[in-house]
């Protein structure tokens, strides 16, 4: 049943122009950053370079792709619940012999698949350099994995925000609010007492940073998977409570 | 007769507002139950609870013996539901949508094609299988909503105002379809159009301000004894009451009367006696149908000529 729901979401996502616009806009931004990094790197002498080309590209290209994914995921997620509440089509799932967990996982799987091409864009851009530059493909693979995990988290946050309101605009703003909070919360570490690193640990960008350096750490994997799970559980909870409200 | 739906003491509150209060209902196989009531009476809330889209504040709903709260998936397998707004995906084509609905209702893969073709045929949508849903007219969308509800041959069919937006021919077709479907399953049919409920349903439940005010069998179409008439002024009320066929005559306005005929008397005799007495008959019509009268009496709205 999860597959049936995911397939429907996938088909719906591919038929609407939103995904293609996001992919097109994302590629334009990445291409610009890509060219800028290459130009800056080639303009420096060997002794002036502080990082390898692979690291420079990884940090810049995948970093900006994460921001694009952060903006894209709520837009994709919001039509899966919020717009369905508004149009009344969610009643079809509500009256069907399907567990709510299957509905949540099906829709999340749909988001995950729809966000995957966006996560592969930086790696595809880097593939242009294959044969001309000696890139660290292990680092690229780690950065792609990190970006994909971050996109899953953004998708889960988007899905949760979409479950909160029947107004898609409100849901998108709620998702951006939550994601922005998770982006800047690391800065609170500077304001707090020394040694209190909880806020730093909560920020997704702190964990993605290690992937972009090529380090796949269990703690970072656990962070993304745990928060993705938490937001999916919150979505499930919200949908169950919706029947009561 | 097998009881398919049993609703016991169903109550639903939205904050301080009580939308449903202590509703009891039963539905047997082969029966069409009309849920009637003015706007805001609680019909849609009741049907949303029966479909599993809304949880009751208290009370119990059983679908063929399965508790909807404890075994929602098992109970929903037996349900077909058409909400007030057909639950359609604008981005899909008609056949794609029905295939998705079939899978959602656990129709075996090998039977999906047949089930979709059958639902399209029954709802008169055979030629629209490749049509995008976004381009369908309101009437066809309503029919597609019905198609998704009957696709998996449910044992209980819940239809919330299914003829809304349909033209007279389509309304007649839907009525026929409901009667046909009721041979194998039980149907709960909500409407605020009284003649429609009378035409389709075996039994009627009238909701008013969240309470079930009646749940009776619709009787056979017996001729009414109550008539309304208008006489040429000056209307002689005493002469009207004195007619042999009239048991009781009540003036409504200066030239209008409500007349109850004596048993076994009909309008032809009344007309004959009115003309013979020279009372100047200008208008004669039967009072509202039994259901209509019951409905207005129950919800406390006085009839006006």
Average per-residue pLDDT of chain A, rounded, comes to: 88
State the end-to-end CA separation of chain A. Answer: 26 Å
Largest interface: A-B, 23 and 31 residues
Lateral strand order in the biggest sheet of chain B: 6-7-8-3-9-10
**Hey, roughly how much beta strand do the residues of chain A contain?**
under 5%
| N-to-C span of chain B | 42 Å
What is the top-level CATH class of the largest domain in chain B? Alpha Beta
Outline of chain B, from the CA principal axes? elongated
Tell me how many strands of chain B there are: 14
* Number of strand segments of chain A: 0
Structural class of chain B: alpha/beta
Q: Please, how many helices of chain B?
A: 10
- Cα-atom Rg of chain B, whole angstroms? 24 Å
DSSP helix count of chain A? 12
Low-confidence stretches of chain B: none
CATH architecture label of the largest domain in chain B: 3-Layer(aba) Sandwich
**Largest sheet features of chain A:** none
Sheet with the most strands, sense and barrel status of chain B: 6 strands, mixed
Rg for CA atoms of chain A: 19 Å
Number of domains of chain A: 1
Helix-strand makeup class of chain A: mainly alpha
What labels would you give this structure?
heterodimer; A: 245 residues; mainly alpha; B: alpha/beta; Rossmann fold; Alpha-Beta Plaits; 2 domains; six-stranded mixed sheet; 32% helix
Describe it.
The complex is a heterodimer of chains A (245) and B (305). With 245 residues, chain A is an all-alpha fold. Helices cover 79% and strands 0% of the residues of chain A. Chain A has one domain. Chain A has helices spanning 2-15, 17-43, 53-78, 82-87, 90-95, 100-126, 137-164, 168-184, 188-191, 198-202, 204-212, 218-242. Chain A is elongated, with a radius of gyration of 19 Å. The model of chain A has no long low-confidence stretch (mean pLDDT 88). By secondary structure, chain B is an alpha/beta fold. In chain B, helix 3 (94-104) crosses helix 4 (109-122) and helix 4 (109-122) packs across helix 5 (138-150). Chain B starts with a strand and ends in a 6-residue tail after the last helix. The interface between A and B is medium-sized, with 23 and 31 residues.
């Amino acid at each position: 049943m999860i597959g049936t729901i995911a397939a429907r979401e996938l088909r719906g996502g591919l038929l609407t122009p939103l995904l293609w616009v996001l992919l097109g806009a994302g590629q334009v931004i990445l291409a610009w950053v890509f060219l800028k990094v290459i130009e800056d790197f080639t303009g420096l002498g060997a002794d002036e370079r502080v990082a390898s080309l692979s690291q420079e590209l990884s940090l810049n290209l995948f970093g900006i792709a994460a921001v694009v994914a952060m903006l894209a995921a709520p837009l994709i997620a919001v039509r899966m619940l919020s717009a369905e509440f508004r149009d009344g089509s969610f009643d079809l799932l509500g009256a069907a012999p399907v567990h709510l967990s299957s509905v949540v996982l099906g829709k999340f799987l749909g988001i995950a698949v729809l966000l995957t091409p966006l996560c592969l864009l930086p790696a595809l851009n880097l593939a242009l350099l294959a044969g001309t530059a000696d890139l660290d493909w292990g680092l690229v693979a780690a950065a792609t994995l990190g970006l994909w995990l971050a996109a899953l988290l953004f998708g889960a946050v988007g899905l949760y925000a979409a479950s909160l309101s029947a107004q898609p605009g409100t849901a998108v703003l709620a998702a951006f609010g939550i994601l922005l909070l998770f982006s800047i919360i690391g800065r609170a570490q500077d304001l707090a007492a020394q040694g209190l690193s909880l806020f730093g640990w909560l920020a997704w960008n702190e964990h993605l940073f290690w992937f972009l350096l090529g380090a796949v750490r269990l703690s970072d994997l656990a962070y993304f998977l745990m928060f993705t799970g938490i937001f999916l559980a919150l979505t499930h909870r919200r949908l169950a409570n919706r029947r009561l409200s | 007769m097998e009881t398919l739906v049993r609703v016991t003491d169903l109550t639903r509150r939205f904050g301080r507002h009580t939308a449903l209060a202590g509703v009891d209902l039963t539905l047997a196989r082969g029966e069409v139950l009309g849920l009637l009531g003015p706007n805001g009476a609680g019909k849609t809330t009741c049907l949303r609870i029966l479909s599993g889209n809304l949880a009751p504040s208290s009370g119990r709903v059983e679908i063929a013996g399965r508790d909807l709260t404890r075994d929602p998936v098992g109970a929903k397998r037996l349900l077909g539901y058409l909400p007030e707004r057909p639950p359609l995906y604008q981005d899909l084509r008609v056949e794609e949508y029905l295939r998705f609905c079939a899978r959602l209702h656990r129709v075996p893969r090998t039977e999906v094609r047949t089930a979709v073709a059958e639902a399209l045929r029954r709802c008169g949508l055979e030629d629209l299988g490749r049509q995008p849903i976004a381009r369908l007219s309101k009437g066809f969308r309503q029919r597609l909503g019905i198609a998704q509800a009957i696709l998996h041959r449910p044992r209980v069919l819940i239809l919330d105002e299914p003829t809304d937006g349909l033209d007279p021919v389509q309304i007649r077709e839907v009525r026929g379809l409901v009667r046909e479907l009721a041979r194998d399953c039980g149907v709960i049919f909500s409407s605020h159009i009284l003649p429609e409920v009378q035409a389709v349903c075996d039994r009627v439940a009238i909701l008013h301000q969240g309470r079930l005010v009646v749940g009776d069998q619709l009787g056979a179409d017996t001729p009414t004894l109550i008539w309304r008439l208008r006489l040429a002024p000056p209307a002689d009320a005493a002469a009207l009451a004195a007619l042999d066929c009239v048991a009781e005559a009540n003036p409504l306005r200066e030239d209008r009367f409500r007349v109850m005929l004596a048993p076994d008397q009909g309008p032809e005799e009344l007309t004959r006696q009115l003309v013979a007495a020279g009372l100047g008959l200008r208008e004669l019509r039967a009072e509202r149908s039994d259901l209509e009268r019951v409905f207005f009496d129950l919800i406390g709205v006085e009839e006006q000529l």
